[in-house]
Amino acid sequence: MAILEDIWDGICNFADYVWCNGDLLAFVILAAIGITAAVYVVTDRIPVHSAFYLALVFFTVGVAYFFLEAEFIGVIQVLVYVGAITILFAFSIMLTRKYILEDDSDE
């Protein structure tokens, strides 16, 4: 019975720790989203999906800068990388994909 009480006390202490440190929980969730999206960037077979997963990775990095209290760098990260670079990747993939598909069908 003492083992169950120790386990219950440990769970309650962990719950109290998480409740008092909500920013830690938010950062861990954000990091998990970023790592999962980064894995999808590499493993997804559709290039347009990879470009948008890359945008999600850039966005999570920008939000992580807000956790570090570097708001200016976070805003620049979101504007430049998510707003410009990723959209440039998506447009270039969409524009060149038609020609790649036509070359494959000619053979």
UniProtKB/TrEMBL annotation:
<keyword id="KW-0830">Ubiquinone</keyword>
<feature type="transmembrane region" description="Helical">
    <location>
        <begin position="24"/>
        <end position="43"/>
    </location>
</feature>
<dbReference type="GO" id="GO:0008137">
    <property type="term" value="F:NADH dehydrogenase (ubiquinone) activity"/>
</dbReference>
<feature type="transmembrane region" description="Helical">
    <location>
        <begin position="74"/>
        <end position="95"/>
    </location>
</feature>
<keyword id="KW-1133">Transmembrane helix</keyword>
<keyword id="KW-0812">Transmembrane</keyword>
<dbReference type="Pfam" id="PF00499">
    <property type="entry name" value="Oxidored_q3"/>
</dbReference>
<protein>
    <submittedName>
        <fullName>NADH-ubiquinone oxidoreductase chain J</fullName>
        <ecNumber>1.6.5.3</ecNumber>
    </submittedName>
</protein>
<dbReference type="GO" id="GO:0016491">
    <property type="term" value="F:oxidoreductase activity"/>
</dbReference>
<dbReference type="InterPro" id="IPR001457">
    <property type="entry name" value="NADH_UbQ/plastoQ_OxRdtase_su6"/>
</dbReference>
<keyword id="KW-0560">Oxidoreductase</keyword>
<dbReference type="InterPro" id="IPR042106">
    <property type="entry name" value="Nuo/plastoQ_OxRdtase_6_NuoJ"/>
</dbReference>
<feature type="transmembrane region" description="Helical">
    <location>
        <begin position="50"/>
        <end position="68"/>
    </location>
</feature>
<keyword id="KW-0472">Membrane</keyword>
